[in-house]
Amino acid sequence: MYKRKERLNLIRKRVDQYGEVAVKDLALFLQVTPETVRKDLETLEYDKLITRTHGGAVKYNHINKEKSYANKWQKQSNVKERIAKKAASQIQSGEIVVIDGGTTTGRIPQYLNDIIQTTIITNSLKIANELNRAIEEQRIQGEIIMLAGKTNTEQDVVKGHLTNELLQRFKFDKAFISCGSFDKNDCYEFDLEEAHVSQIMIQQSQLSYLLADSSKRDARASYRISEFSEIDYMISDYAKPQDMEHFNHKSWLQI
Predict the structure, then answer these.
(1) Please, are residues 218 and 186 in contact by the beta-carbon 8 Å criterion?
(2) Domain 2-57 is of which CATH architecture?
(3) Which helix (H) or strand (E) covers residue 8, if one does?
(4) What is the pTM of this model?
(5) How far apart are CA 56 and CA 210, in angstroms?
(6) Is the pLDDT at 63 greater than 70, yes or no?
């Protein structure tokens, strides 16, 4: 039986070696219960030595740490407003829509008008509040569903196993997704669990829209949300680059 200090060192070494580890594998390796492993992971995450994920842990990377929601809200604000307005124009009465918790998607509710019998689902506390305000102001009619899950207080969203499980019970007409960065083939997020939430939103939707301003091109988010082959439309502030071959003049919506 390993002592706690020994377990912590062994967990760190395995994370460094493999990049990602699972609770069940660590429990078997260390000959302890999964609950003991989870407590050890909490300690390591508190010390900023690893980052916990659903069912395990990955390496901690201080370089790619995501800025707070409030800080991100101010960046490229004028461009984000225009992108959100374009996205809002794609939402029609009677649709079932899902919106993730980005600072661009977070601006969509203020541009919704004259929409009825619409159901909007989100994992964002801010977006849910803004959508409720839109209903109170009679700009939209319908239902707002706030997903359950564990909170990320810096980003004002919920995420994790419960969030993912609930999302998989829906079929959406449209998904509106943000990202931390994108390259010519894929889009990425700073947080692994938030990336998974957005990924499921895309998978459960008939049509998916990625909202991303030009500052996100080749930025440094670590966790892939999706390949662009799974994204139907891109809404951005600049002309489609030649190397992003998946999109054409109809699916690239330049503001």
Answers:
(1) no
(2) Orthogonal Bundle (1.10)
(3) helix 4-18
(4) 0.73
(5) 28
(6) no
DSSP 217: B
* Average pLDDT for the chain: 90
Q: Rounded CA gap, 52 and 141, in Å? A: 39
Percent share of the chain, pLDDT over 70: 92
Pairwise CA distance, residues 34 & 233, whole Å: 42
**Which one, of 81, 85, 88, lies nearest residue 174 by Cα?**
88
Q: Into which CATH architecture does domain 67-252 fall?
A: 3-Layer(aba) Sandwich (3.40)
Reply yes or no on whether the pLDDT at 248 is more than 80: yes
What tokens were used for 161?
């196993």
Task: Determine the Cα–Cα distance for residues 145 and 151; give it in Å rounded to an integer.
Answer: 16
Q: In the chain, where does the domain assigned CATH 3.40.50.1360 lie?
A: 67-252
Distances (CA, A) of 43 to 8, 11, 47, 200: 8, 11, 6, 29
